[in-house]
Write a structure and sequence with these properties.
Two copies of one chain form a homodimer.
Chain A: E1 5-11, E2 14-24, E3 27-29, H1 31-37, H2 43-46, H3 52-57, H4 59-72, E4 87-90, E5 98-101, H5 105-115, E6 132-135, E7 140-142, E8 147-148, E9 151-155, E10 158-161, E11 165-166, E12 169-175, E13 191-198, E14 201-202, H6 203-209, H7 217-220, E15 223-225, E16 230-231, E17 239-240, E18 260-261, E19 264-269, E20 272-275, H8 286-294, E21 305-307, H9 322-325, E22 333-335, E23 338-340, E24 348-356, E25 362-364, E26 368-373
Parallel strand pairs in A: 5-21, 7-15, 8-26
Antiparallel strand pairs in A: 1-2, 1-4, 2-3, 5-6, 9-10, 11-14, 12-13, 12-21, 13-15, 13-16, 17-18, 19-20, 19-24, 22-23, 24-25, 24-26
Chain lengths: ~375, ~375
Amino acid sequence: MRSLALGVVGGAGRPGPGRVVARSAEGVVDVGSLADVEAGPYPELLAAHTLDALLAAGRPAWREVHGWLAARLGEDHAPYVLPPAGLQMRLPFSVADYVDFFACEQHAANAARIARPSGPPLAPNWKHLPVGYHGRAGTVAVSGTPVVRPSGQRAAGDLGPTRSLDVEAELGFVLGGSAGPVAMDDALDHVFGVVVLNDWSARDVQAFESRPLGPLLGKSFATSISAWVTPLDELAAAWVDPPPRDPEPLPHLLGTADRGLDVALELAINGEVVSRPPAIDLYWTAAQLIAHLTSNGAPLRAGDLLGSGTVSGARRDQRGCLLELSWGGTEPVQVGTGARTYLEDGDEVVISATAPAVGGGRVALGEVRGRVHPASRSGTAPV
Amino acid sequence: MRSLALGVVGGAGRPGPGRVVARSAEGVVDVGSLADVEAGPYPELLAAHTLDALLAAGRPAWREVHGWLAARLGEDHAPYVLPPAGLQMRLPFSVADYVDFFACEQHAANAARIARPSGPPLAPNWKHLPVGYHGRAGTVAVSGTPVVRPSGQRAAGDLGPTRSLDVEAELGFVLGGSAGPVAMDDALDHVFGVVVLNDWSARDVQAFESRPLGPLLGKSFATSISAWVTPLDELAAAWVDPPPRDPEPLPHLLGTADRGLDVALELAINGEVVSRPPAIDLYWTAAQLIAHLTSNGAPLRAGDLLGSGTVSGARRDQRGCLLELSWGGTEPVQVGTGARTYLEDGDEVVISATAPAVGGGRVALGEVRGRVHPASRSGTAPV
């Protein structure tokens, strides 16, 4: 299985800043040294502490770097593989703004049915634009970072550790290139790559706080992303036609870039797969999220991160969050020897993903992993 | 009137990075040179391109710098005043995360009454926690930046320039100090200073998009802040008791830091004052916003910016946005020779503020200014 991706590593007896690395079948590759010694393209972008400079460089640089790496890592590169002991993956880029969307129809409909069984399955705006909100960029964390169960108001005056800690299996789009608003046809030129994203959620806190301005503390405690960013160029065989839509999206949300990605997600709790959400079903595509986000004139910045929102398919075993899997906590899910409505302390969640590879087979995207730690002793976080 | 504040200036024939300056009665003062030549405190934080390093340094450094500047700028400092020609104020710090709250009861109640005249005046959560949402850090702009009328979906399928471009007169709190969650008693140690903030809003776009995740494009096109940041130490005489609250806030939102700020705002359109919103009336105080925001374990970062939300008083001429002043567009406001429901192209909005000064008199805070430019020709922004 192919697995070319870029990330940032620290550790291995080297304190201080991280360095850019690539993932190959042989291990973690010091691409800065490789590009320097072998006169690869853009050595100054690869011999860097983070992906920030590469993200800012834009599509032509990304394409050249990807082409070179794909070829070079297909040959012997053992001298550039870092000894694995002590390597620690770091957050691969500085997150500028983080926007989380709600792009999956099945998830939006399920969430609405759970919240208001007698109400309409979708809000009136849902099929007219990609609904979304800004999340907290400062709490985006790399895979492996522990997640402390957050406290908050679970209902009016009822402060304590959340009783409904959830995950959301999502795709994350890592943006770069020139700043500025982006038209639909140029949107994909601003996507450097894809991460797997877990939008941890405290459902009780979120439900109480969200009216009328949306989620805040129910989401802002942590958002985890895979340490490896899979370049969009690596996913060239994964493009698919978007799903049928009614009504037709407005013209500024249509164009040849309006394509879906056939990424298969897998959500596992404590080593057991509980769901396989299909991102191929997303109603709104990456290009539409970008074109919508900038349609009011707001520029993108390198390091902007867009989440797709929970990916869910039509079947129960394709639902990407416990809210849906347990139908609002009413239908426990079997996980190994126990049942879960929401997460328990000590649970470890791993979301992984694959997509069709150029030339056949599959590409493995990065995985995002996190273990739930108990709430801090005080009940509220500060001590 | 006192007016000690810090900012960043570029221009004056000097291309490239900006430099930290202070505002005194005599003009714009090159505090980097002043601190360097006269061995002032923390010269490395003042001889900088932005306020970022100073914000990270924390309260003890802020207090020492403020005390020194307040004394030194009371004496002759003419050699350090920059020639005004060509000076351009810049965004004074790198905005980390921007969170906009909804902390004024009068505004929240008016907004609810306008949206649903027969509904309750406040959402069930409003008196239990400070409702807020993350805004777009990347579109926070310095006073003077033109605001292009944004386009968006004003209703289902109805794309075009907003018909209800509004302002929101707010206080902004500029945060710094050590990262991490913050308990109530320590909250004010994380407030470096105060800006005047205009949260430009496209009411039609906001109303259509907001369900259920809150505002996105209706707000993300621009948020303007004053170029001058008034250090909190400069506002020592402006503290007041918070307003009476029922129910009493939860213990983690109470403490000696729970004080309001007696800041008087003034909202002018095309040179005419249309409103004088009193920030003394804010229901939730700065310390509560901070303690709430970090109560789920989310850390602060230096450069985080918190908006109070629109400040409105009980009288019509104290309302801080046109939504309220025109009661949802139904009661035009007289501005000079014309009437306004919402902003017209060419309108210039200036929000200014003062507060009681130590020793009597008033402190002038920075003002935030912006002119409305017509929507881009294409109707949607990207061209």
